[in-house]
């Protein structure tokens, strides 16, 4: 497969903060923002910072990455060894996102900066192609979407994923994608062609099945309806799509009515199986989520503070209660999957990586959503 030319190679019609140095050329930008841009990554790596009318309120910091592949430490316990994150920060703006704290490593904050200051590894496809072409490359499965979403809105501008998919498929490397982004539909034909040669796993995250709540808590994401349509489009091409109901939010999305409606809609969309797990709150996400909860549902704030007082995870008692509520519904709608897809086998999220008759495979983990794995994904 031929990879497309890198979109950053030409000069777009936008308003760069600066194209030649690490200081801001926009006269209207505040000085503290200039310092933020100047200090980002130091001098190395940063090509320019860009604002464009199509993405109001956002800044894209274009960097040249030295490597696209990230090795996952064996001590992490994750069922995958390699990840790729073409973006850091995420315009989905999910208030519960665990990855918020990673922005602090860049001297950016875990709140609005995470939503609006997106780091773009503009050369990721080219660097990846060189890495996987090396004789020593082991062709282990590579997971995408384990930190920030590869199909967030920035992908519509930069188009990095086709080149990444092509590089992996051309070098016999299995891949998995977990996303909330309906832009995945653009690449489904490419993924179907890749799946003729290597295992390809697709997972769609749809945690909230109430339109008003979804737009409040995940304001930058596509609608639930649009994501379900994307599941259907992938299923129609033969992919066994897993839908992640993660996180389940206590007293917000854990009613029997909400869960029943969610699972019915997911089944009707043609999903292969469902994985779920209760909300967990790491530092960074915890503060941002509690601030949102205090504004939108202040009556629930004391309960959440008690529940997450001593741990980022919901209590064992709550997880047991949730399992008893949701498991019968999963069985009712035929969304449990099969035993050979349980957590810990060779796939990125637990699937063995076996090919189905259509050349695709599914993402899966144990039905409750193991807290350790959940923490790495949501």
UniProtKB/TrEMBL annotation:
Residues of the Radical SAM core domain: 76-323
GO MF terms, alphabetically ordered: iron-sulfur cluster binding; lyase activity; metal ion binding
Give any Pfam family that matches: Radical_SAM
Q: Where does the record place the region Disordered?
A: 1-26
Q: List, alphabetically, the PROSITE patterns matched.
A: RADICAL_SAM (PS51918)
Record keywords: Lyase included?
A: yes
Q: Which UniProt keywords apply?
A: Iron, Iron-sulfur, Lyase, Metal-binding
The record, for InterPro entries, names: Elp3/MiaA/NifB-like_rSAM, MJ0683-like, rSAM, rSAM_sf
Task: State the protein's name.
Answer: DNA repair photolyase
Organism field = Brevibacterium casei S18
